[in-house]
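## tool: complex_structure
## caller: assistant
## args:
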Amino acid sequence: MSGPRWMSDPCTEDEFREHWQRFLKPDGLCLWCRKPAADGPCGTITIKISEEAIDNGEVFTHQFCSWECLAHRFADCAGGVFVHTDVNTAADLHNE
Ligand SMILES: [Zn+2]
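## result:
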């Protein structure tokens, strides 16, 4: 699975515009799962990205409801897929 489910493929021009609009004017919804970001387990996580090359250094704001959604987004941006590994399980595997 890659990309949020709500981003249909191919996305319409309206969807695309709305998508970018949200970066400039956050609507309080998680960028990844589209749930209200403030309802998440650790409140709203806000990421600001200054895009020097686009729109004269406009700052894009991304909001996430949880670290997990943020991790999914980061992994996606990095060209991969977020795989959650339980720390205890990882330690067990290491000991074998
Ligand atoms: Zn989320």
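## assistant note: Residues 30, 32-33, 35, 64-66, 69 surround zinc ion (CB under 6 Å). Strands lie at 45-50, 59-64. Handing back to user.
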